[in-house]
Write a structure and sequence with these properties.
Helix Hairpins, D-amino Acid Aminotransferase, Chain A, domain 1, OB fold (Dihydrolipoamide Acetyltransferase, E2P)
Length: about 650
């Protein structure tokens, strides 16, 4: 093998390793599954040309791993494999023919929907859910039990009493995924690329309450360790799972020939968009479980199963223009306006371009013919422009140097990817900042919606957040289709908002990267806005949920004189800039607490609030600074860590209530 081919193999191996990291561990892939598999196919073909002693270790020999450094893990009782893929009916037919040749007959097969989710392994013993883990590296999985316990669709108890592993996929329904991304974009957080990535990121969240908000669901289709399950066929197993209370897709076919398999695949490739969740193909398995055992496995995949992957649909359309949207924190996002085209189940006329670098990478010109796909079959994405179809003298798309709304000179963020309008009074920002300020999780001002805010700005009745609390209600009542009753209701809602605690006010200010959970941690840690103002970056970074990026954002926001003036205006109007926790006693004063497992009488949030009301403090992890670990049913890894620290006292919910008195 010549040096050029060796270099190409090394390049492909490095590229595949990078994409494995992005996909499995970071849940943030930069290419589609189809593009990844094409890279893998290229590498496989080149590696076949190598001598055995030259080949060495290849990423194609490994099962992708989602394990994160330092995460709690548990070994699987039976290894979890990945599937080989086929991308054409010809390849699928070849697989069936090879299988029949090896067995000497054509076996009965099951064809099932391939859920585009995140693999999960549930372990039950004595009929009770013991723990839940991700696929991990196939040998060992990462523990995600607290988040799984929040999924109402997953049975906590089953009739089967022997130890058993139940395998399935965690997913987010399409409608919930779209809503989740809308909320993230409204808060100027990075949108998830597709439902699978959203599910992967959500199931590993450290905060179970936050994970609960993601509307995770699951579908189950297989088993791992199961020493005495009296079943003979995969089709029987699917029925058994449903009888035990596990959600299944309900869509499968027992096939006696390749043509029947092909019909099932063709049907669902056309009908996949009718489902409430994403599928990316069909899994074909030998139905007879004894035959599965006889056929066995390769180094990473079962020989008795294959995934027929649907190709992502691509279409060509014309780029009409690029518009620039300004968010509430000033982030400027380019959006491609396209000639409408029907693709993957819906008509598309817009596609996000993310940032200036994406425009440059694509080398876009106005009126270009572009090729688009739906990333994850959901989000429209421009794959490439087609220079051969470009008009003569076409005008290149240039990212603006100035804000498209207020003309202020744009600035790049610290990481150099996003451009921002620094003008806090920019009308585009102001509309969205007020919408955020009045939203339910912030100041919760009922009646102050998008259309009314736009009217108030147009009528010059408000020019900033503080003006909300100086509204002329008599003038407001004179607006068309408003009236005195509506004005009075709005007045009451605005007055009621003054009672919101400091954490809600802090979130309402719309500081970049400061969500509602982070705002709560900051308010609890510092107590007042004045203490927060003087905190250095190192101190800020010690707060739970706050890292260096959020610390820099806080320092930048409070370092702006206009923002400090806004704080003083709002404080003068009666808003709370100190965190008020109603103390019932000081019984737990000076003591730190952490909860693990499910409590009998209180949910975790309520119990933590109870501890605070009696003077105790909640910490984020087990360390020498922890005084009490409160243990409920099915505790997590915190218990094992606490047992190694003599300074930590392990108590029950009842013992905690006795401490409070």
């Amino acid at each position: 093998m010549n040096d050029e081919l060796k270099r190409e193999i090394q390049r492909l191996r490095a590229e595949i390793e990078r994409h494995n990291l992005l996909y499995y561990e970071l849940a943030n892939p930069s290419i589609s599954d189809f593009e990844y598999d094409q890279l893998a196919r290229q590498l496989k073909e080149l590696e076949a040309l190598m001598e055995a002693d030259e080949r060495g270790e290849s990423p194609l020999d490994k099962v992708g791993s989602d394990l994160r450094p330092g995460a709690e893990t548990i070994p699987h009782l039976q290894r979890m494999y990945s599937l080989d893929n086929s991308y054409s009916t010809e390849e699928l037919e070849q697989w069936c023919a090879k299988l029949a040749s090896e067995l000497g007959f054509f076996p009965t097969l099951t064809a099932e929907l391939k859920i585009d989710g995140f693999s999960i392994n549930l372990y039950y013993e004595n009929g009770e859910l013991g723990h839940a883990t991700t696929r991990g590296d196939g040998i060992t999985g990462e523990v995600v039990t607290p988040n799984i316990l929040n999924l109402s669709s997953i049975p906590k108890k089953i009739a089967h009493l022997s130890p058993i592993e139940i395998l399935g996929e965690i997913y987010i329904p399409v409608a919930d995924f779209l809503k989740l991304n809308e909320e993230r974009q409204a808060n100027e957080e990075k949108a998830f690329a597709n439902p699978r990535n959203a599910a992967a990121g959500s199931i590993k969240l450290k905060n179970p309450e936050e994970a609960k908000k993601r509307h995770l669901n699951a579908i189950f289709y297989s088993i791992g360790h199961s020493p005495d399950l009296p079943l003979q066929r995969q089709s029987e197993l699917l029925a058994w799972l449903a009888d035990q209370g596990f959600p299944t897709s309900g869509q499968f076919r027992v096939c006696a020939s390749y043509n029947e398999v092909r019909e099932f695949c063709d049907h669902w490739e056309n009908e996949r968009y009718s489902l409430p969740y994403e599928i990316d193909g069909v899994v074909v398995k030998v139905d007879d479980l004894a035959l599965q055992k006889r056929l066995g496995y390769t180094a990473k995949s079962p020989k008795w199963a294959v995934a027929f992957k649907f190709k992502p649909e691509e279409k060509e359309t014309r780029l009409l223009e690029v518009q620039y949207q300004v968010g509430r924190t000033g982030a400027v996002t380019p959006v491609a306006i396209l000639e409408p085209v029907y693709i993957s189940g819906s008509t598309v006329s817009r596609a996000t371009l993310h940032n200036e670098d994406e425009i440059k990478r694509l080398d876009l010109h106005l009126n270009d013919i572009v090729r688009i796909i739906k990333s994850g079959e959901i989000i429209p994405k421009i794959l490439t422009a087609i220079p051969a179809k470009r008009e003569p003298n076409a005008v290149p798309v240039r990212f603006p140097a100035n804000c498209p709304v207020c003309s202020s000179q744009l600035e790049r963020d610290e990481e150099g990817a996003i451009s921002y309008c620094p003008n806090a009074s920019c009308p585009a920002q102001l509309q969205r900042r007020i919408e955020h300020f009045a939203s339910r999780d912030a100041m919760d001002i009922s009646g102050l919606g998008t259309s009314l805010i736009a009217r108030l700005l147009e009528q010059n009745m408000i020019a900033g957040l503080a003006d909300i609390y100086r509204l002329d209600y008599e003038a407001l009542a004179q607006l068309d289709r408003f009236g005195e009753k509506s004005a009075e209701n709005l007045r009451n809602s605005i007055e009621a908002s003054k009672a919101r605690n400091f954490d809600r006010v802090l979130f309402a200010l719309g500081i970049r990267y400061v969500g509602s959970v982070t705002a709560r941690h900051l308010a609890e840690y510092f107590g007042t806005v004045d203490e927060l103002l003087i905190a250095g970056e190192e101190t800020l970074a010690q707060v739970p949920e706050v890292g260096s990026k959020i610390a820099l954002s806080l320092k930048a926001w409070f370092g702006n004189p206009l923002n400090l003036k806004l704080v003083e205006k709002l404080r003068a109007q009666g808003l709370r800039f100190s965190y008020e926790l109603r103390r019932e006693s000081e019984t737990l004063a000076g003591k730190t607490f952490l909860l693990t497992g499910s409590l009998d009488n209180y949910d975790r949030k309520t119990m933590e609030e109870l501890i605070r009301r009696h003077g105790g403090r909640i910490v984020s992890g087990v360390s020498t600074s922890l005084n009490y670990l409160v243990v409920g049913a099915k505790p997590g890894s915190k218990l094992a860590k606490a047992q190694k620290l003599p300074s930590v006292k392990i108590i029950s919910e009842i013992e905690l209530l006795e401490l409070i008195g």
